[in-house]
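In the design runs reported in the main text, the only information available to the sequence generator was the tokenized backbone. The following block is the verbatim input for one such run; it is reproduced so that readers can re-run the procedure and compare outputs position by position.
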């Protein structure tokens, strides 16, 4: 064998060089039967080659075998690196490469057209002409049919209980067809920092905005030609939250830089800055009187500002930092969560903006974790009335019924315990389906997937998941038409998923 001769000759040189140096010299040798192979240290960009070359050798090992094995492993690592580099240079990304190496054996006969709609193409429209499009872009565990029918098959079987892991896969029989997705609608990846919060416009199906940890706030449209409309710059630290006004003309944002900014979308300008003494964590416009702006901060306060003048109307003090909040549909109640896992109900006067604390729900968990999500819904099939969803950083999802006649008294109806989170991952209600369906929520996870859960199931709670992100999914949001779901990750990629039409 030619390679064996080369390596043997090099290993017998007695020039005092180390074994690793000998192997590097041998790689640069010329094979009489093949073309000249040159691999220089300076050109090696894949770290796998070093793990191949620096494997320890025992005293009784055969030098011929060691040399040949290292040479072949080095060529394999170099080949894999160029292969991945070629995919990146041709406009394709991780998802397409992953699905390519997992392709079925007869994939050439399926005549799947190639697409470049990956995280490397910001805001690119993804055509859905081919039924096998999502083989290259997204894995949605929503069918057990084969690839020829245009969907992916799932062979995973995992049992669920009230305490489950995000990495568990949904069972075939438990998939909810109404939360099946046909693939990615569009992708925005121009942001270079983690996207911490994203929302669709009020009563809007195509206006989307998201804030990032670099202080930027991006406004875009997800219509048939997705594009970025405005990029708002002014915050010097993480954007923690923002909210649209009722007519979508203004955005109010809060940040870790202790400021609140109000933006006029048509001009892309900051028209008001309100400075505080601590980091501003959450913010909401009043749903009825947009002149009121409620802000929660790390100084254990909730402050109501006058939008027109920027002056403080009233304050309410809490036991811990206010981390999340939401209004009810009437504007007479505010629900907020703090850093100790408590959820509060506050009454608010829509005319004067005065606040008064009504009720407090204490978490039963011994470990107190911040509440990352507080979301109100005016009607629920499970509760037969208004409900509240909360999500904590320890992975606890809680579902409350709200008694409006008792100033927002909360009653815990059910809860779901997921794996604890390192990041502040948020959850959201799913669209209502019909009178005979359960109560569904969607949440991101740190294993880079988007999960759908049915809170009414005692077992097998996870009914679907979406795969496409490469990093932990931080937040999710539905549009008003309930046909698009947006998700963002720690790397700054925003994916808009298109839901399959159901009768």
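Verbatim output:
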């Amino acid at each position: 064998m030619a390679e064996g001769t080369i390596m043997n000759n090099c290993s017998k040189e007695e020039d005092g060089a180390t074994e690793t140096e000998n192997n590097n010299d041998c790689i640069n040798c010329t094979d009489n039967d093949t073309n000249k192979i040159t691999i220089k240290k300076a050109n090696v960009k894949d770290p796998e080659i070093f793990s191949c070359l620096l494997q320890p050798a025992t005293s009784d090992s055969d030098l011929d075998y060691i040399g040949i094995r290292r040479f072949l492993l080095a060529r394999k690592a170099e080949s894999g690196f160029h292969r991945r580099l070629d995919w990146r240079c041709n406009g394709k990304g991780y998802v397409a490469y992953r699905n390519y190496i997992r392709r079925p054996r007869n994939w050439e006969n399926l005549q799947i057209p190639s697409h470049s709609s990956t995280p490397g193409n910001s805001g690119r429209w993804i055509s859905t002409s081919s039924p096998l499009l999502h083989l290259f872009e997204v894995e949605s565990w929503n069918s057990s049919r084969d690839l020829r029918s245009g969907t992916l098959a799932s062979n995973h079987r995992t049992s669920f209980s009230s305490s489950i892991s995000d990495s568990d896969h949904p069972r075939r029989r438990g998939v909810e067809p109404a939360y099946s997705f046909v693939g990615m609608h569009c992708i925005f990846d121009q942001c270079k920092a983690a996207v911490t919060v994203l929302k669709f416009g009020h009563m809007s199906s195509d206006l989307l905005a998201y804030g990032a940890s670099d202080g930027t706030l991006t406004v875009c449209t997800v219509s048939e030609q997705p594009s970025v409309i405005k990029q708002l710059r002014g915050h010097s630290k993480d954007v923690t939250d923002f909210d649209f006004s009722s007519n979508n003309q203004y955005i109010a944002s809060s940040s870790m830089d202790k400021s609140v900014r109000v933006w006029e979308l048509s001009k892309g300008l900051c028209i008001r800055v309100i400075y505080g003494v601590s980091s501003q964590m959450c913010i909401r416009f009043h749903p009825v009187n947009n002149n009121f702006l409620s802000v929660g901060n790390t100084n254990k306060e909730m402050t109501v500002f006058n939008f027109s003048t920027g002056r403080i109307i009233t304050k309410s003090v809490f036991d811990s930092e206010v981390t999340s909040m939401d209004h009810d549909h009437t504007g007479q109640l505010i629900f907020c969560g703090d850093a100790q896992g408590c959820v509060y109900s506050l009454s608010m006067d829509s005319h004067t903006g005065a606040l008064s604390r009504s009720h407090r729900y204490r978490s039963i968990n011994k470990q107190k974790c911040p509440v990352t999500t507080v979301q109100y819904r005016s009607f629920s099939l499970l509760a037969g009335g208004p409900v509240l969803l909360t999500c904590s950083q320890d992975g606890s999802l809680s579902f409350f019924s709200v008694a409006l006649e008792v100033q927002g008294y909360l009653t815990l109806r059910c809860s779901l315990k997921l794996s604890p989170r390192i990041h502040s991952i948020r959850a959201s209600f799913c669209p209502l389906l019909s009178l005979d369906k359960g109560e569904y929520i969607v949440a991101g996870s740190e294993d880079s997937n988007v999960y759908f859960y049915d809170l009414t199931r005692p077992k097998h709670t996870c009914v679907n998941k979406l795969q496409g992100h490469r990093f932990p999914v931080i937040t999710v949001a539905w549009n008003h038409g309930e046909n698009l779901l947006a998700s963002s990750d720690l790397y700054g990629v925003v994916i808009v998923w298109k839901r399959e039409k159901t009768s």
